[in-house]
Specification:
The chain has one domain: 4-Layer Sandwich (Metallo-beta-lactamase, Chain A). The protein has 8 helices and 14 strands. Helix 6 runs antiparallel to helix 8. The structure holds zinc ion. Zinc ion binds next to loops.
């Protein structure tokens, strides 16, 4: 979730699963239209591809031993992600590991369904484990505003600096809490025909609360976590960066549909520093 301030949530009940863990999934009906709009999948750099919607970024890491999918958008993003993967010439069912940058409905919406369809394992930052298990019911803000997503049982819990390895691709989890308790970024090295790139998939610790920090009793450490994450992220070195939302890293300013492969458009250290600076501004106001 990028931002909720200034927009009223209308909740719809997506489906009801009877049985032992009966739970209603309440996804907002008036999400920004860019979240559901399709966008062409493309190769970002080396074995890293963009397979998300117009604004909800999903990343596919392709290896000889299967693929890793990071973020799954809204519940209705599933078909788009599947189509995008196939359009690039890869197999949907080759997804072996599912990851998220944060346990919010706009990145977790289709996670349970994709896991079920592909049989992939879902690994998550340990601090977001209660939130993914409860479908957001334990989240400090989602519970507050009544938003949820299909719950999912993680196969593995990850901690800061843990390595997620598939074939010879290694992703390092960087624990960047604050937006959610277990928000995280990923760092990986990719190589193409010409060179290698250190890639940061960043989770910008956007502040979404309408309340003051002190009032967020469900997440007492939120203020410290955001400050620490912003400081840690400022120190990161990388060649190119992307983020949980396309709008956060200016995808549509940097790349137009049909553009040819050109990883270097995603360098942009200045844009990254500015994105962090924008959060600092909101932080200081709070
Ligand atoms: Zn979020």
């Amino acid at each position: 979730m990028k931002q909720l301030t200034g927009y009223i949530l209308i909740i719809i009940s997506l489906h009801f699963t009877p049985g032992l863990h009966a739970q209603k999934v309440n996804e907002p009906q008036n999400n920004p239209t860019d979240w559901s709009k399709p966008y062409e999948p493309f190769r970002i750099a080396g074995n890293l591809y963009y397979v998300g919607t117009y604004d909800l970024a999903s990343y596919l890491v392709v290896t000889e031993k299967g693929n890793i999918l990071i973020n799954t958008g809204l519940a209705n993003s599933r078909q788009q992600i599947k189509k995008n993967i196939e359009r690039l010439g890869f197999k949907y069912r080759d997804i072996k590991i599912l990851l998220t940058t944060q346990a919010h409905w706009d990145h977790m919406g289709a996670m349970a369904a994709i896991k079920k369809e592909t049989g992939a394992q879902f690994w998550v930052d340990a601090a977001d484990a209660p939130e993914v298990r409860s479908g957001g019911a334990t989240d400090y803000e989602l519970a507050y505003i009544g938003v949820s997503f299909a719950p999912i049982v993680p196969d593995k819990l990850l901690n800061d600096r843990d390595v997620i390895q598939l074939d010879d691709t290694r992703l390092i989890l960087l624990h960047h809490p604050g937006h959610t308790k277990g928000s995280c970024s990923y760092m990986l090295d990719v190589t193409d025909e010409d060179r290698s790139y250190k890639v940061l998939i960043a989770n910008i610790p956007t502040i979404i609360i309408s309340r003051k920090f002190a009032e967020v009793k469900e997440y007492p450490g939120i203020k410290t976590d955001i400050a620490n994450s912003l400081t840690a992220m400022k120190d990161l070195q990388f060649d190119i960066w992307v983020a949980s939302h396309a709008g956060q890293f200016g995808l549509h300013q940097k790349r137009k549909p049909g553009d040819t492969y050109n990883p270097i458009i995603f360098s942009d250290r200045k844009g990254y520093d500015q994105a962090l600076e924008n959060v600092w501004k909101v932080y200081k106001e709070k």
